[in-house]
Amino acid sequence: MLLESLQSTVEEVNIFSTSDLFLRQRLELVESLWESVLKAECGLELVDLLKKLRKISSPEGQVTDQPKTSINELIEELELNEAIRATRAFALYFQLINIVEQHYEQRDQQLNRRSTYQESEKARENYQKGEKSTNGLVGADLLEKALVGETKSQEKGGTFHWLFPQLKRLNVPPQQIQRLLEQLDIRLVFTAHPTEIVRHTIRLKQRRIATLLRRLDQAEEAFRGMGLSSSWEAESIIEQLNEEIRLWWRTDELHQFKPSVLDEVDYTLHYFDEVLCSALPQLSQRLQQALQAKFPRIKPPHNTFCRFGSWVGGDRDGNPFVTTDVTWRTACYQRNLILEKYLAAVEDLTEILSSSLHWSNVSQDLLDSLERDRVAMPEIYDQLAIRYRQEPYRLKLAYIQKRLEHTRDRNNHLANPEQGQVLVEETPENIYHSGVEFEAELQLIKRNLEETGLKCQALENLIFQAQMFGFTLTQLDFRQESSRHSETIQTIASYLNILPTPYEELSEAEKVNWLVGELQTRRPLIPMEMPFDEKTIETVETMRMLRHLQQEFGIEICQTYIISMTNDVSDVLEVLLLAKEAGLYDPGTSTTTIRIVPLFETVDDLKRAPEIMEALFKLPLYRAALAGGYDYLDEDKKEQLPPPQLQPANLQEIMVGYSDSNKDSGFLSSNWEIHKAQKSLQKIAEPHNLALRLFHGRGGSVGRGEAPPTLLF
């Protein structure tokens, strides 16, 4: 392991040896800090050992296989503790180098955009003046050259500024782009995976070091602009970098205990807390800017064009620690995080929206809203009426903040009822029952601002977040292996003695006929008292918990139930029957509040997937469930929801697995089978007038990379 680390280190250094001066300087700085920390923590002997290993490995600065014998001899002489420390040192070096490289790439892109913009602006000025450059180019030539450079700098593959100019050059009709944007519905799903071993603590240290590198750039650029060579601020930042690296060295890289499911939930929520909640509004703004630059008449997609799901806390397949209690707490933790985000944003808005009635008018609907708030929460009015007497936006935000606080307190009680917290009284006036109610109040403020010619970007961002995340943050996906449902139905049928032949001995056709019959009756199948084994009770209680979650959080909290290892029609109908018993499917109206998603994983299952789905689509009961599913809300509630939250009827979601198929036949063969299965499934869905959504469960080292596999090849 140490030899592999050493060879990789030499290759890493040589990769960067041809880079520009700034990158080399940053690498030299980080390497010197790394050596300084190791010298202080472990002594000069370790530093000398690392230098010796690197020198033997590549005496000429070139990677070669010749010195391996010498390296092996040196490593074999090391004591175990010395080898461990050397391995840790190289691992730390790799991570520091990666941070510097990523920082350099971001900085380089920013500088290129800035330089190109300045050149294009200068060329425009010369063009307007009709001046010539020192190389004889006239202004028009300079302008053309600069604009070409500007276009090239923006045309980095995978960016919005690359995409829309490409569509323009390809003469894609704007109407077609508009239709695609209106239908855009991207869903990204988080999973907890055993290969994720990096601690949350280490990720925070990586972020702090990256932040310090950015601050160091700013400090050095500021002083160079003043004609100075160094600054106390830069020296202070370098000292902080040294402290961070030293603390990192003293920190365990791996968990010293087995993380619980709720620990995994916390790790997942970290990405929403630190990155996604703030980054997504910016992403939407960039999309709109790039779109309007090339297609000004096209409307941008709705704010919920990209939404998130999570298996963490809901995926039961092979994990007995995911209980109904864990799932309930997960939903509460998610809601608590987004409510805290909203509270912080409302506090910021209170500072920003200081408009006074002395200098600005407000509409009657806002005044009416404030009067209703005064009646509902007189304590807030008594406390703040004098301070905000002439500042209606701040007064309105105070009421909003108090409702959010009450909603959060109630949620905390639901998450931890054993702590004896006082439950907030459930009245419509002092809590929000959904994110839709919260967003409606924000929209009221936005309309009033627009009517007086004002716009507030912070308010726009908060509305975007309210539409994107609601009060659930992300959808919880449930997953269970198909045999668990079969065993549950088998146990219940055997206890009730309602089949002449044991369920497990029925043929597939007989199972389907019996399941269809049970799905068409309103008679309950499962008794209230369940004298069953633990697995059967847990499977039934999972469905009941799903129903309970939808009642408390809304259907958007959990709509997807994934059946892993699906290999027959009965696997899907068994889940639909269990959903009926929990009140998630109504046979009288053919409406359902969940989406059953078969997962085809192995190569054999992928080949049979079209046959299984064709048989399901031909069942009148199943087609009726798809046609009537999800679209069950009252008309008045439908008007409050953004379009993507109304689940389209006649939609079938299917998940295709990459990991197991890779194990079956290898990467290339499995991807080819997945490709063929997708085409066949699409052909089957079209005659039934069904929309098909494919959920790609990509696994393996290639699937978890940062780019499509085509770039890998």
UniProtKB/TrEMBL annotation:
<feature type="active site">
    <location>
        <position position="193"/>
    </location>
</feature>
<dbReference type="GO" id="GO:0005829">
    <property type="term" value="C:cytosol"/>
</dbReference>
<feature type="active site">
    <location>
        <position position="663"/>
    </location>
</feature>
<keyword id="KW-0456">Lyase</keyword>
<keyword id="KW-0670">Pyruvate</keyword>
<protein>
    <recommendedName>
        <fullName>Phosphoenolpyruvate carboxylase</fullName>
    </recommendedName>
</protein>
<dbReference type="InterPro" id="IPR021135">
    <property type="entry name" value="PEP_COase"/>
</dbReference>
<feature type="region of interest" description="Disordered">
    <location>
        <begin position="110"/>
        <end position="132"/>
    </location>
</feature>
<dbReference type="GO" id="GO:0008964">
    <property type="term" value="F:phosphoenolpyruvate carboxylase activity"/>
</dbReference>
<dbReference type="GO" id="GO:0015977">
    <property type="term" value="P:carbon fixation"/>
</dbReference>
<feature type="compositionally biased region" description="Basic and acidic residues">
    <location>
        <begin position="119"/>
        <end position="132"/>
    </location>
</feature>
<comment type="function">
    <text>Forms oxaloacetate, a four-carbon dicarboxylic acid source for the tricarboxylic acid cycle.</text>
</comment>
<dbReference type="InterPro" id="IPR018129">
    <property type="entry name" value="PEP_COase_Lys_AS"/>
</dbReference>
<dbReference type="InterPro" id="IPR033129">
    <property type="entry name" value="PEPCASE_His_AS"/>
</dbReference>
<dbReference type="InterPro" id="IPR015813">
    <property type="entry name" value="Pyrv/PenolPyrv_kinase-like_dom"/>
</dbReference>
<dbReference type="GO" id="GO:0006099">
    <property type="term" value="P:tricarboxylic acid cycle"/>
</dbReference>
<dbReference type="Pfam" id="PF00311">
    <property type="entry name" value="PEPcase"/>
</dbReference>
